[in-house]
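Priority: low. Protein: DUF1134 domain-containing protein. Input follows.
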Amino acid sequence: MSITINRLAAVTLGAGLAFALPSQSAKAEDALGTPVGHLTLSAQSADVGVGFSWGEGTLTYGHHKYRFKVSGADIAAVGYSKISAHATVYNLKNLHDFDGTYGALNGEATLDRGLGGALLSNSNGVKLKLDSVTRGARLAAGAQGLTFTLEK
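Result:
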């Protein structure tokens, strides 16, 4: 009898979580607005004191794909790493608003085993909800920003 009750409790809890988690995710997406595009990028960072990052990617916006370059700097950094990332794009009303320097809105959250996430924004109000995978060994005290530039 207790085994049946425990299983029922586990199924009920699992079903409750299945319905609760999407609504929490939907609330977070509502705070950012409606997704208008996606991007993928690959970048590298090399650091000795002051660090530098560079890379490239593809923005998907309005049923079209656009290539871009990304670069940035870090202070008090040491090491080398490769980054692969995917992002959801919010509040991009015109393609030319994509270009610019993006800074972190809420810092970076390192999850585990090189997985991370960040919420970035530029001066045009474009927001990127970034999920990344990092390989390598690197320590950095603070980011100065990442500059995204569409290729002409």
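Helices lie at 2-32. The radius of gyration is 19 Å.
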